[in-house]
């Protein structure tokens, strides 16, 4: 982690990730399939690094191996984990994160877009389960203990901060935010939004954004690249 970053922010230095990020940056990478594969691979590497620090295991009884030997079973802690992609580009990271976890976790979707005039985030979709357990609704799903928030890009940080505020209002105790590429200012803003409750993990970091709020040199509009809507 760079010395001038907050304690709750980490930018990967993994050699394989850095090489894949260069391929993802390239204007020669035009295929939506190649773009999605690179986002998936980078999310997998960042996810591994993040979970090694943010998750733990606890004893969960005993089991028997195929050779008949007994062993101690461990399960993930915390047990109540959810995954939230910020639509639309965050959807490309869902499979990578789910495949890292020992069991599938609930996926809650949050739709946000950035207003091009004000650069502020505007919510257009939210399917968080606000119903909670009660006598009349014993199966109601309350807030997760930990939410894994995924979005390939943190540019100005406005979208990430809006998502953090939404999850905090829902009652989440901790958030692990995983991104492919961030601007330094965007990372600092997201990390400072709720310092005691949020960890920010990124595959790479660029120094600045342009007048349109795009990261320089960045990846372009990753959503358009993933869904072949460039030039819309």
Secondary structure elements and pairings:
Layout: E1 9-11, H1 15-25, H2 32-54, E2 56-64, E3 70-77, E4 81-87, H3 94-100, E5 110-114, E6 121-126, E7 146-150, E8 153-154, H4 158-170, E9 174-183, H5 184-193, E10 198-206, E11 208-209, E12 215-216, H6 222-227
Parallel strand pairs: 1-10, 4-5, 4-7, 7-9, 8-9, 9-10
Antiparallel strand pairs: 2-3, 5-6, 11-12
Helix pairs in contact: 1-2, 2-3, 4-5
Any descriptors?
single chain, about 230 residues, alpha/beta, two-stranded antiparallel ribbon, 6 helices, 12 strands, about 30% strand
Strand content: 25-35%
Largest sheet: 8 strands, mixed
Q: Which structural class fits the helix and strand makeup?
A: alpha/beta
Give the distance, in angstroms, between the N- and C-terminal Cα atoms.
38 Å
User: How would you describe the shape?
Assistant: globular
Order of helices and strands: EHHEEEHEEEEHEHEEEH
- The radius of gyration is 19 Å
Question: Number of helical segments?
Answer: 6
Q: Tell me the number of strands.
A: 12
Residue stretches low in confidence (pLDDT < 50, at least 5 long) are none
- What fraction, in percent, of the residue positions are helical? 25-40%
Describe this structure in words.
- With 232 residues, this protein is of the alpha/beta class.
- 30% of the residues lie in helices and 29% in strands.
- It is built from 6 helices and 12 strands.
- It has helices at residues 15-25, 32-54, 94-100, 158-170, 184-193, 222-227, and strands at residues 9-11, 56-64, 70-77, 81-87, 110-114, 121-126, 146-150, 153-154, 174-183, 198-206, 208-209, 215-216.
- Strands 1, 4, 5, 6, 7, 8, 9 and 10 form an 8-stranded mixed β-sheet that branches. It has a two-stranded antiparallel sheet with strand order 2-3.
- Strand 11 and strand 12 (215-216) form a beta hairpin.
- Helix 1 packs antiparallel against helix 2, helix 2 (32-54) packs parallel to helix 3 (94-100) and helix 4 (158-170) packs parallel to helix 5 (184-193).
- The mean pLDDT is 91.
């Amino acid at each position: 982690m760079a010395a001038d970053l907050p304690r709750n922010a980490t930018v990967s230095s993994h050699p394989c990730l850095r090489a894949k990020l260069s391929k993802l940056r390239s204007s020669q990478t035009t295929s939506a399939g190649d773009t999605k594969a690179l986002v998936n691979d980078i999310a997998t590497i960042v996810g591994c690094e993040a979970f090694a620090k943010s998750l733990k295991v606890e004893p969960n009884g005993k089991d028997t191996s195929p050779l008949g030997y007994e062993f101690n079973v461990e399960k993930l802690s915390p047990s109540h984990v959810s995954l939230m992609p910020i639509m639309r580009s965050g959807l490309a990271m869902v499979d990578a994160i789910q495949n890292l976890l020992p069991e599938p976790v609930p996926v809650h979707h949050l739709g946000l877009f950035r207003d091009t005039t004000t650069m502020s985030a505007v919510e257009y979709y939210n399917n968080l389960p606000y119903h909670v357990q009660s006598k009349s609704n014993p199966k109601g799903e309350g807030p997760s203990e930990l939410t894994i928030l995924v979005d390939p890009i943190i540019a100005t940080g406005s979208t990430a901060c809006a998502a953090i505020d939404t999850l905090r209002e829902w009652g989440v105790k901790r958030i692990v935010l995983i991104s492919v590429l961030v601007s330094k200012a965007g990372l600092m803003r997201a990390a400072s939004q709720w310092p005691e409750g949020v960890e920010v993990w990124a595959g790479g970091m660029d120094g600045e954004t342009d007048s349109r709020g795009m990261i320089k040199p960045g990846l372009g509009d990753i959503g358009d690249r993933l869904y072949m809507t460039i030039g819309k």
